[in-house]
Amino acid sequence: MDWQVGGAPVETTFFDGFEIEKVLIEFDGPRLFYASTSFCSMLFMLVDEDELHLRHLVVPASQAMLGNLKKGLLTVREALDQPLLWVVDTNLNYSPQAAWRSDLLALPKDVLPQPGVMLWPHLQPTFSLRAIGDGLAEGAVPASVIRQVVDGASTALRKAALYVTDEPTRQGRVRKSLKRLYDLPAQRFAYRSFEIAFGEPEETAGKASSLWEDEEDELAPLGAALEKVITAAASEDQLESLDITLLEAIEKLVPPLSGVVSEFEVSGRIVNATGRKYSLKREDSQRVKKVLQKVRGREEKISTLEGMVSEMDRDNLTFTLRQTSDDKDHVCAFSSDIFDEVLEAFSQAVRVTVSGRETLKNGNIEVSIFNLNEPAKHSAEDD
């Protein structure tokens, strides 16, 4: 061990005769374990060793902490980042030889677990989106940034799911099973700037046979599509070769051209099982917006139509507009903000007027304005 501990030496009394109760990570001996001491229960992490000594980081621990580590609600580094932290050297028989009060900032970075690393590999988030910007920290994240991250992640996943399942080209109800691919449960929130991590679909979370053990993993094509469009963001030529649905996915993963968020970081097993993180900055935003504007001008138009909401998919926020003013059926996607209005139109069978971007190749409409039409007034002359 060739590094000096940054911190004040303390007596080893608290750690004498500690008993290992639960080994969490083992490789040629315990690497991370839960132990009882005369002072309290503690978490020990082996960070260095030589022929005679083992060096551990030690923090107070509880059963609640263990439960959060095992569920993927807490990273290993977050578990160690506590006001009380000691560095404890033991001999090879785990008898304490020296101890120091310290903190993570005083320790060499290469001995610490990387930020975001969970207890076990299968707990790594399926998809994670992190907003980076000056001033973003716990207690100082505007609601607008939280909404950007949540909407950006969910919309990007939904667009990618539509692309890989070829749903944008289909008429009628979007498959209900599609929702499980993008409506992932939030696993954890973190304040390294501001980050939301999502876990596996609820049907598979916690089961012995998870999606990630299946070679025909349903999420793999979705992840490949996202990885493809993220890497394409560095080149206008590559972006122009992509389907418009994928361009609309990446549109939600690049930062706004102004405001507090200057960068988005995308990670998770869905895009890269090795833990690679993708950074998207404002120069990427400029390319994406430029190409998307060009493609939309070629493949979309702004349409305003009247019709009846004849079918409604509440899960996937789509409806089918029939008896229309252009004599065509249109599958319409809408935001949750107008859910009540769409439901009322469907339930009451009243005509509506919708406006939004219509995709020329299939007639599908991304609704931006939705109005219920006033019923025609009944007069005596009609009798």
Question: Could you walk me through the main structural features you see in this protein, from its secondary elements to its overall organization?
Answer:
The chain has 383 residues and is an alpha+beta fold. 25% of the residues lie in helices and 30% in strands. It contains nine helices and 17 strands. The chain has helices at 63-71, 76-80, 143-164, 179-182, 219-232, 236-240, 244-251, 282-299, 339-348; strands at residues 8-10, 19-26, 30-36, 41-49, 53-60, 85-91, 96-102, 127-132, 186-190, 194-198, 263-267, 278-281, 300-313, 318-322, 330-333, 351-359, 365-372. Helix 3 packs across helix 5 (219-232), helix 3 (143-164) runs antiparallel to helix 7 (244-251) and helix 5 (219-232) packs across helix 7. Residues 168-174 and 205-216 have low confidence and may be disordered.
Class per helix and strand makeup: alpha+beta
Low-confidence stretches: 168-174, 205-216
Distance from N terminus to C terminus (CA atoms, Å) equals 98 Å
Q: Sketch the major β-sheet.
A: 7 strands, antiparallel
Helix content: 10-25%
Assembly context of the chains: single chain
Major sheet: arrangement of strands: 1-7-6-5-4-3-2
The shape, in one word, is elongated
Strand content: 25-35%
Number of E-state strands: 17
The SSE string, one letter per element, is EEEEEHHEEEHHEEHHHEEHEEEHEE
Per DSSP, the total helix count is 9
- What is the rounded Rg? 27 Å
**If you average the pLDDT, what whole number results?**
87
